[in-house]
Amino acid sequence: MKTSPSLSSLRAGVIGTGFIGPVHVEALRRLGVTVTAICDVGDLAAQAAARLKIPRAFADHRQLAACPEVDVVHITAPNRFHCQMSLAALRAGKHVVCEKPLAMNTRETARVVEAARAARRVFAVNYNVRFYPAVLQLRRLVRQGILGDIIHVNGSYLQDWLFKDTDYNWRLLPAEGGRLRAVADIGTHWMDTVSFILGARITSVFADLATWHKQRRRPLGEVQTFARADTRLRYAPYKVQTDDFGSILLRFSNGARGNLAVSQVAAGRKNCIRFEIYGSKKSAWWCSETPEQLHFGNRDAANETAVRATPAFGDGAAGFMDYPPGHVEGFPDTFKMNFRAIYSAIAGAGSTPPLFATARDGHQEVAVCEAILRSHRQRAWATV
Ligand SMILES: NC(=O)c1ccc[n+]([C@@H]2O[C@H](COP(=O)([O-])OP(=O)(O)OC[C@H]3O[C@@H](n4cnc5c(N)ncnc54)[C@H](O)[C@@H]3O)[C@@H](O)[C@H]2O)c1
């Protein structure tokens, strides 16, 4: 009889050593998974391998995918590489964890969905926000009907790291990040999370997108994600073709309505994802700035606040929390818990359907983005 590998016997290789690659490495190690290989361009892989104590370094992603000491390939390179890297890893017989968005357009994402299906490998897209304990608990409450029928959802995802015209990152260039920026980069986190909680897909959208800095200045030389503007740098002006912020009306497959605001030029908001779910029995609110608290709104009784890992919070996140109440579980923990779900599925012990976002979910988010762009251009509702 074929036995399933245990979670900690699986070995990971990570492509991309910028901001989020090392977050993957750290989360994997906290889970007990060995990271055997890393990949980046030029000397960056060797430098990261030395810094992070990873035995194998590759300058070409296909070599990492072919490495027999790698079972799972994590793709944390810029968006434009996701499709080709996913296909190469699947061709090499590897399981894949790809960063969001899954690829640049639905032509590419459809190819990945089909390749993942044909390869019969586990393929996950890193919509890690699903793994905040409050999000898992909200999903449970909606499924149990505790909130009643969902009437509407309100929320936002706001950041300020691209607030200044000198703030620069590859995401600002359509050829690197895709035609949509704020919406694809952070808006899809919100849309994936809310769809996950509601158990309902977004079926149509009405979008108004805007670019505050129509021209920005690009530092000459590469800049890391979230890097501060450096006054000693020299800059070259360029025209901005991607959205700094936007407002989107949404319709969900269960009849619920939604409205979402997204911005990367909201001074003071570092990484604030927030949603309020209004049901026919009661409401629930959550914000990533206070991730341990889940708020409930009542019409006739006092409102309530529940703290993670207490009885009032509920056990919808059981198995995906490691610390007692009062010891905050936040952003890095969502990666650990997402990987726990993914690696359990690889080891043959995951839940059905999986809690993590699949290639199909990643395809859906890119399809929503395309509908959002269509709606914005046509100034009309667009069907996903
Ligand atoms: N889930 C999340 O919360 C989250 C957060 C941040 C970024 N991301 C996603 O992760 C991806 C990377 O974002 P980032 O902020 O880490 O970017 P980054 O620019 O900081 O890092 C990207 C790294 O990829 C490397 N790279 C570029 N081309 C490569 C190639 N051909 N082969 C190997 N490596 C290559 C770069 O040299 C760089 O080190 C993006 O798709 C982004 O959307 C997700």
The top level CATH class name of the largest domain: Alpha Beta
Strand content: 15-25%
User: What does the average pLDDT come to?
Assistant: 95
Question: Structural class of the helices, strands and pairings?
Answer: alpha/beta
CATH topology of the largest domain: Dihydrodipicolinate Reductase, domain 2
The rounded distance between the terminal residues' Cα atoms is 44 Å
Coarse morphology:
globular
CATH superfamily of the largest domain: Dihydrodipicolinate Reductase, domain 2
Unreliable parts: none
List the strand order in the largest sheet: 16-15-14-13-7-12-11-8-18
Query: What is the count of helical runs?
Result: 10
Number of strands: 18
Helix content: 25-40%
- What's the gyration radius in Å? 21 Å
Major sheet attributes: 9 strands, mixed
Pattern of helices and strands: EHEHEHEHEHEHEHHEEEEEEEEEHEHE
Q: What is the CATH architecture assignment of the largest domain? A: 2-Layer Sandwich
Count of distinct structural domains: 2
What molecules are bound to this protein? nicotinamide-adenine-dinucleotide
